[in-house]
Amino acid sequence: MLLAAGRGERMRPLTDRTPKPLLQVQGKPLLQWHVDGLAAGGFCDFVINTAWLGEQIPRHFGPEPHSSQGLPLGIRYSWEGLDFGGALETAGGIVRALPLLGDIFWIVGGDVYAPGFPFSMQAVQRFARGEKLAHLWLVPNPPHNAQGDFGLAIDPHAPGRQLALSHAAFKYTYSTIGLYRREFFARPWCEIPAGNTQGAKAPLAPMLRKAMDNQRVSAELYTGPWTDVGTPERLAQLNENVTP
């Protein structure tokens, strides 16, 4: 699932006419970078949630969507804007789309740039063999999030694996890339009924912290290129460094 429903307030005026996930980075929309990376890893079935200027996203991909490498894609949409008048926040949007998702799925924020991230079947298989509810990729803290989000610790029940911690002396930043189980979006972790037919808005972070406190979330550090494209200045910096 690609998260693409946000308004992108900090990116105005760029997002007044273009949804943030379709802003161009080095010649390609942000969302297209994720689609291409996932497709290259063998993942070609997508759910995209939309709200602000959401009609532009299916228009971009067209009736027969393909990756930039020509791989055919299956894309379904969760129309939060049409159904409820606006975005449902991260957890609310995921639960709304849950009937379209499998038992294990990627969640990827549509407003980050991570061109070399390894979306691999091996990662999914490793996650499936375990019992964690979510597996997160954390990144070194950027200047705008110097305090970080979550910590890391060795999992005492799985040598060589790491747990995500809600409280730690040092924290990293959540990349907004992770693997999740369907059961995480049900009680006791999530109070919104599957399908979110009432359009409840809910953030994801409190659910993650609750699961972390019960040692149900694993994580690892990703040190490849990664940018939260949260301001016009960061977008301009990325586009100034265009590789030939």
3D structure, described in words:
- With 244 residues, this protein is an alpha/beta fold.
- 24% of the residues lie in helices and 23% in strands.
- It has a seven-stranded mixed β-sheet with strand order 5-4-1-6-11-8-12, with helices on both faces. Strands 2-3 form a two-stranded antiparallel sheet.
Class per helix and strand makeup = alpha/beta
* Mean of pLDDT: 93
Percentage of residues in helical conformation? 10-25%
CA-atom Rg in angstroms: 17 Å
Major sheet: size, sense and barrel closure?
7 strands, mixed
Give the N-to-C terminal Cα separation.
31 Å
Shape: globular
- The spatial strand order of the largest sheet comes to 5-4-1-6-11-8-12
Bin the strand percentage.
15-25%
Can you count the beta strands? 13
N to C succession of SSEs: EEEHEHEHHEEHEEEEHEEH
Poorly predicted parts: none
Tally of individual helices = 7
Summarize the structure.
The protein has 244 residues and is an alpha/beta fold. 24% of the residues lie in helices and 23% in strands. The mean pLDDT is 93.
